[in-house]
Amino acid sequence: MTETRYIKAINEALHEEMTRDENVVIIGEDVGAPGGAFGGTRGLLQAFGDKRVKDTPISESAIVGLALGAAMKGLRPVVEVMFADFLPVCMDQIVNQIAKTRFMFGGQFAAPLVIRAPGGAGLNAGPQHSQSLEAWFAHIPGLKVVMPATPADAKGLLKSAIRDNDPVLVLEHKALYASSGDVPAGEYLVPIGKADVRRTGKHVTIVTLSRMVLDSLEAAETLAAQGIDVEVIDLRSISPLDRQAIFSSVEKTSRLVIAHEAVKSFGIGAEISAMVSEEMIDVLDAPILRVGAPFSPVPFSQEREYLPNAADIVRAVEKVMNY
Amino acid sequence: MTKPKDPAISAAIPNDDGLMDLHHSMLRVRLVEEKLLQVFADGKIPGFIHVSIGQEAVATGVCSCLTPADTIFTTHRGHGHTLAKGMELKPFMAEIFGRANGACHGNSGSMHVASAEAGVGGANGIVGAGLPISLGSAFGTAFKGEDSVTVVFFGDGASNQGTFHESLNLAALWNLPLVFVCENNGWAQFSAQKAYMKIDSIARRADGYGMPGVLVDGDDVLKVRDGMRQALARARAGDGPTLLECKTYRWFGHYAGDPQKYRPAANVEQARTVDCIANFEKFLIEQGLAGRQQLDDVDARLRVEIDEAIAYAEASPAAPKGQYLNDVYA
């Protein structure tokens, strides 16, 4: 175990996977000598050369489509899209091409590729550089979507994603890039599709992900002082969703709050809430509540006010407990 | 822009230069699609189909230069390219009929037929979407040190998509072993080329990306083949991509059953007087390379093969219940 920053853990995963498999290639804008906009690909060009670390023009559709074609030919491309907000620029390639390649061609071709993209707010980056769009992608059969909250998960999920035989979208959180945590050195894989119980508790379950895991843990501390024992589940993977982990926890607590940074309306909280309502109607002791952002683009100057936080989670849990 | 090489059609074509194969390939595509129109009208094929009748010289001229190791990507109007590249007719037909033993398990239909075996990386229902994917195919084979080439077919309409610009720029920049084949049939769905483009020749656009642009008569299979041979030689020599524009005409509507209110029937009739297959047969006979009876025999044999493929497709089982769930993830 070494104390490592989230962005460094990503970089470590890329180094290790490129060393392990010569078919792993890095593709993206300024991923070479500059080492990526946030430093995720730093040192890879020097270590592996320009045959495997490919700087591209600013052409997101071409880049992501190129990764698909290369994957169909047996490579393991890892594409960096500089901000998750730019994924809509290449949405056709992701949704109509990459996600459907295995299906549409009856398994004759596969798309084992990874798209890394930083999402989320917290850096005052404004409406076009701060979004949390995971629900869009989780809605598309054929894609896998993961969102690491810790440096260890950032490393372990990325390594698993590179080895996966299907396309995986790794939505990193740019406000977490500078965060630190213990990361196992060397081989460390976090399975895709497995949630992590970050705190055990018996009164209420909080299902959360990405940066909101930190807010949820903070809220849990506050609530513990009031005698409310909260269980915090970090989804890590949105698709496939670890339904069993959610069911097992709610089986125990009978109460559920879902917290995410994305706009609350039509978000993954709605899906999880509906799923638990359908499957556990006899278990629930209270209605399910969601915590999420208001129905507005991420504002530049009022970002802090806009973003859901630990206090919002505390209020939701109190409401569920007092029902 | 590089001037198209334009040899007289009869000049110095050796008898054994695959000419009968070209004829066989073009006629096979024509007869398959005529049959598809018929069975579609009979209600035997679900969904919709887009035929390339009249444009066979492009598919055949291009694909006759390729080996199974080369890869093509094609469009919604891709039956011809796919068959000319060498896909087996039975799994092709069973897919279009939506059967379990179709090449894509009945998940794709006419618009997304693919064959890994034949090097057909897939037809595509999104205009211009094949171009970025073809970049990766070419990059992947070059990365692995293979000398195979990737070819992407697209239409005149697709050349107005952003993916065209992005892909040509990147392919030229990276010197990829790729040939961009613009099959300009004059129509983007219901609109004539002049309605959405200021220029006549799309090949001119190549200059803006730093690659040769070559315009050939897409109704003359030998001229298409000649243009393709030059483009392939460049790609195989490591000299990078070429934009090869093949000018032809779409004889039928955008889709089977299109009432075509957007164009006068007389214009279509006029265009159909240029028939790549009839012209090539005339050439073969005039040059003493084939007799009428010989060509008719090819026709008869193809009809038997096609009828057998139709019968195979019709006799094939439907995809099993829930089959669609099996191919989503590994």
Plain-language structure description:
Chain A is α/β, with parallel strands linked by helices and 323 residues long. Chain A folds into 2 domains: 2-183, Thiamin diphosphate (ThDP)-binding fold, Pyr/PP domains (Rossmann fold), CATH 3.40.50.970; 196-321, Rossmann fold, CATH 3.40.50.920. Chain A is 36% helix and 20% strand. In chain A, strands 3-2-4-5-7-6-12 form a 7-stranded mixed β-sheet, with helices on both faces. A 5-stranded mixed β-sheet of chain A has the order 9-11-10-13-14, sandwiched between helices. Chain A has a two-stranded antiparallel sheet with strand order 1-8. The termini of chain A are far apart. The model of chain A has no long low-confidence stretch (mean pLDDT 98). Chain B is of the alpha/beta class. Chain B has a single domain (19-316), classed as 3-Layer(aba) Sandwich (Rossmann fold), CATH 3.40.50. Chain B is built from 10 helices and 7 strands. Chain B has a 5-stranded parallel β-sheet, with helices on both faces. Classes of the chains: A alpha/beta (323), B alpha/beta (330). Chains A and B meet through helix 3, helix 4 and helix 5 of A and helix 5 and helix 6 of B.
